[in-house]
Amino acid sequence: MTTMTIAPATGGFSAEDLDRFAGRADAYDDHGLLTLQELNVRAEYITDLHPNLPYAQGYSAYVKGVQREQELISGRLGVA
């Protein structure tokens, strides 16, 4: 049997950081099921109605990243 050192579950991240990560993770999961337009609508609802601001920020940040990536791929956004 070996001895293990148990690391803290948060890894040194603040509660707000963990909430942002959770928002990004949920948006990532939704991205597999929804179109970009549907993601944008959901992000707007979450931004307006979700009680946890860092969660909403994380969700919106992921959706904006997906939108920017799509614009780059389609040539509608120039490389800065």
Tell me what the structure shows.
The protein contains three helices and no strands. By secondary structure, it is an all-alpha fold. It is globular, with a radius of gyration of 16 Å.
| Residues in β-strands, percent | under 5%
Helix content: 55-70%
**What are the segments in which pLDDT stays under 50 over at least 5 consecutive residues?**
none
- SSE class: mainly alpha
Instruction: Report the total helices.
Output: 3
Helix and strand element order: HHH
Mind describing the biggest β-sheet? none
Task: Report the end-to-end length measured between terminal Cα atoms.
Answer: 55 Å
Mean pLDDT: 88
Extended strand count: 0
For the structure shown, list the relevant keywords.
0% strand, 80 residues
Quick overview of this protein structure:
With 80 residues, the chain is an all-alpha fold. It has three helices and no strands. It has helices spanning 15-31, 36-49, 53-74.
Topology:
Layout: H1 15-31, H2 36-49, H3 53-74
Helix pairs in contact: 1-3, 2-3
